C-alpha cells in the first residue's frame, strides 16, 4: 500500500504542477491582451516581450567582427585577425580588451537613456543578456565583474546604479562572479563629454579607490558600464585596478561612442 500511495501522491503532484503551468500560460495570455508587449526602445506593440520592433532593430548598430581587438571599435573592412586600430596603437589603453553590443547611436542611445534617466530598470535584464553574448570571450572561468560605481550623491538622486544592474544581469546569465562594491567613487565628477584630455584627467583625479585590494589581486577583472564615451573613466579605473595587482582588466559595455575616421 505504501508504494501505491506514494505513486498516487506523485501523480497528483504532477497533475497539480501541469494545471499550474496551464493557469500561468492562460494568465500571461490574458495579461498580454490587456497589456500587449512593448518595444524596449519606442514602446510600440511587439509580438514578444523583451524585444525590439522592426524599426528599432533596424536602427540598432551592433558591433561585430572585424573590430579592433583592443578597443572593440569596428573596422570598415576585414583586414585580418588580431589587428589594432590606429587609436589603440597611438595611445594604448590601460585595459586589455573592450567589448560592446552596439554603437552609441539610434536605438542604443535611446535604450541607454531610458535605462538611466527614465527609471527603465526593467531594461537591465535584456540589455545585460545582449552584453553577455557580445562579451562572452571576456566571461570565462575566473572572471570577476566589477561595475563602474556612482558617487553617493548621484546614486541618491537616481536611486540606482545602472552599471550595477547591468552587471547583475550579466552575472546571472554568464555565471561570472560579481563584486558590486569593489570600487568606490569618493569624489563627485562632472560629465566627461566636452572636456579636453587634461580636463578629463583633472576631473577624475582622486575620484575612485579600491575598497579591498585583496579582492582584486590576481583576478581577471571585467569592468561593466552602460556606455563608453571618451574612455577616460574606464582607463582610469583600469590603472587603479592594475595598481591593486589585478591579473588583467577588460571592459564590457552596452554601447560605445565610435568616432568616424
From TrEMBL:
Pfam families: DZR_2, Pribosyltran. Residues 30-78 form the Double zinc ribbon domain. CDD domains: PRTases_typeI (cd06223). It comes from the Bacteria. Signal peptide: none annotated. Residues 165-254 form the Phosphoribosyltransferase domain. PANTHER family: DNA UTILIZATION PROTEIN YHGH (PTHR47505). Belongs to the ComF/GntX family. This is ComF family protein. It comes from Chenggangzhangella methanolivorans. The lineage of its organism: Bacteria, Pseudomonadati, Pseudomonadota, Alphaproteobacteria, Hyphomicrobiales.
Amino acid at each position: 500500500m505504501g508504494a501505491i500511495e506514494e505513486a498516487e501522491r506523485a501523480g497528483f503532484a504532477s497533475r497539480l504542477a501541469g494545471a499550474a503551468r496551464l493557469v500561468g500560460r492562460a494568465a500571461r495570455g490574458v495579461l498580454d491582451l490587456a497589456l500587449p508587449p512593448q518595444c524596449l526602445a519606442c514602446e510600440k506593440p511587439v509580438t514578444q516581450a523583451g524585444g525590439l520592433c522592426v524599426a528599432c532593430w533596424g536602427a540598432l548598430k551592433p558591433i561585430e567582427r572585424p573590430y579592433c581587438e583592443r578597443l572593440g571599435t569596428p573596422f570598415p573592412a576585414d583586414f585580418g585577425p588580431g589587428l589594432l586600430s590606429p587609436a589603440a596603437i597611438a595611445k594604448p589603453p590601460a585595459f586589455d580588451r573592450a567589448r560592446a553590443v552596439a554603437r552609441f547611436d539610434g536605438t542604443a542611445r535611446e535604450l541607454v537613456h531610458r535605462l538611466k534617466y527614465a527609471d527603465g530598470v526593467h531594461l537591465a535584464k535584456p540589455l545585460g543578456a545582449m552584453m553577455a553574448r557580445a562579451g562572452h570571450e571576456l566571461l570565462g572561468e575566473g572572471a570577476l565583474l566589477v561595475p563602474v560605481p556612482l558617487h553617493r550623491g548621484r546614486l541618491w538622486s537616481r536611486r540606482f546604479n545602472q552599471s550595477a544592474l547591468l552587471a547583475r544581469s550579466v552575472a546571472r546569465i554568464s555565471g561570472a562572479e560579481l563584486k558590486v562594491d569593489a570600487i568606490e567613487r569618493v569624489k563627485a565628477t562632472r560629465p566627461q563629454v566636452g572636456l579636453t584630455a587634461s580636463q578629463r584627467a583633472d576631473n577624475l583625479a582622486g575620484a575612485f579607490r579600491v575598497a579591498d585590494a585583496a579582492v582584486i589581486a590576481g583576478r581577471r577583472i571585467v569592468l561593466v558600464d552602460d556606455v563608453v564615451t571618451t574612455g577616460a573613466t574606464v582607463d582610469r579605473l583600469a590603472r587603479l585596478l592594475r595598481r591593486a595587482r589585478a591579473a588583467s582588466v577588460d571592459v564590457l559595455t552596452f554601447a560605445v561612442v565610435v568616432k568616424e575616421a
